[in-house]
Amino acid sequence: MKKSGAPKVESASRRIDARIEELDDWRGAMLGRLRALILAADPQVVEEWKWEIPVWSHDGLICTGETYKKAVKLTFAKGASVDDPAGLFNSSLAGKVRRAIDFHEGDKVNEKALKALIRAAVELNTSLASGRRTS
Q: What total of structural domains would you count in the chain?
């Protein structure tokens, strides 16, 4: 028997849109900008909504987008294994797996380096998913 009145599930992309809109200060603008860069860096990225935050995946988790009072944080799930020649990672540096980038009000975003970091994270995920590890 079909259940009626089941709650409508909102798409992850719409939930992310709503989160950006609800943050009506610099954090919403920053999260929107970072999201656009992630989508531009990897057109095959999958947007998800987990743990009440935006999540971007491709053959596994790439990063999450958390918002705090004084920062917007991109946490890379396997960041410790991703080369970061531009030195973007500035948070969660002591961990053995994750790395993060905290963006503060007025920060400039190194778009080229961030896109390269996203692509490196995707490449790592893809290599792990296919059973091979690139150097």
A: 1
How does pLDDT run across 63-106, given as a tens digit for each residue?
999 999 999 999 999 999 999 999 999 998 988 999 999 999 99
Please report whether residue 53 resides in a domain.
yes
Position 2 in a domain: no
* Residue-range definition of the domain harbouring residue 30: 12-129
Q: What is the 3-state secondary structure (H, E, C) of the chain?
A: CCCCCCCCCCCHHHHHHHHHHHCCCHHHHHHHHHHHHHHHHCCCCEEEEECCEEEEECCCEEEEEEECCCCEEEEECCHHHCCCCCCCCCECCCCCCCEEEEECCCCCCCHHHHHHHHHHHHHHHHHHHCCCCCC
Residue 3 inside a domain? The answer is no
Q: What is the pLDDT of residues 94-110, one digit of tens each?
A: 889 999 999 999 999 99
Report the CATH number that the domain containing residue 105 is assigned in CATH.
3.90.1150.200
- Residues 63 and 85: their CA atoms lie apart, in Å, by 18
